[in-house]
Design a protein that fits this description.
Blueprint: H1 2-12, E1 36-41, H2 54-64, E2 66-71, E3 85-87, E4 90-94, E5 97-104, E6 107-109, E7 115-117, E8 122-130, E9 134-140, E10 144-154, E11 161-162, E12 167-171, E13 183-189, E14 195-196, H3 199-215
Antiparallel strand pairs: 1-2, 3-6, 4-5, 6-13, 7-12, 8-9, 8-11, 9-10, 10-12, 10-13, 13-14
């Protein structure tokens, strides 16, 4: 319950990177797309010793208010344009040795050299290569860290801050522990370092997208 609450706060909190300047949003499954919000500024009232009646004050407020539209940064995004699970989290037969079972600490998502996107605002803490996972990117989202493995291309660098829906790489087939192009997504809780099923995040993101789409109807 505590982690769910922290995750909700993390994803719904505004994440400004420098000035809130408008950027291109991912063309799919990202809250906001071209998300804006209108702010009505308070009218400026000149101090006076004379009494002002309510009607004249209301007229001044309606004429003096200024409405400004500004860009609201994106907050959640699915990591791929389409989500299809090839292999779930948990114990499974090792694809490299079908005679043995092995713990699968992530999700294998169908992705044949497709753009991969950050799911939340965060900071890249690793963008490198490993013999088993190939080219990979790990992003710190505060309450958890998520790694995107077997990439064919990395689009970010260590220490870089990323927004939800920002392209971080291209899926691929790099590394020894892969039998074909796909995206391996693994997630750990920051406080315990334990792996958890990434479906928790995918469901949360999907629910937020559905809620947002209903408010736009």
């Amino acid at each position: 319950m505590r982690k769910t609450t922290l995750l909700l706060a993390m994803c719904l909190g505004l994440h400004f990177m420098g000035n809130a300047q408008q950027r291109e949003a991912a063309p799919f499954n990202t809250i906001g797309k071209t998300q804006t919000k209108e702010i009505v500024s308070e009218p400026t009232v000149t101090e006076t010793s004379e009494a002002v009646d309510a009607d004249s004050l209301n007229e001044q407020e309606s004429m003096g208010s200024d409405t400004t539209t500004y860009y609201v940064p994106l907050m959640v995004s699915l990591p791929l344009k389409e989500i299809k699970v090839n292999s779930p989290f948990g114990m499974r037969r090792d694809p490299m040795n079908r005679k043995k079972s092995r713990m699968h600490n992530g999700l294998d998502l169908k992705a044949r050299f497709e753009n991969v996107y950050s799911m939340f605002p965060g900071t890249v803490i690793a963008a490198s290569y490993s013999s088993s996972g190939g080219y990979y990117v790990t992003v710190d989202y505060g309450v958890c860290t998520c790694s995107f493995l077997h990439l064919s291309k990395i689009e970010v660098s260590k220490g870089q801050r990323v927004s939800a829906g920002q392209k971080i790489g291209v899926s691929g087939n790099t590394g020894k522990r892969t039998t074909g192009p796909h995206l391996h997504l693994s997630c750990k809780w920051s406080d315990t370092g334990k792996y958890f099923d990434p479906k928790v995040l995918l469901r949360f993101i999907t629910n937020e997208l559905l809620k947002y789409s209903k408010t736009c109807l």
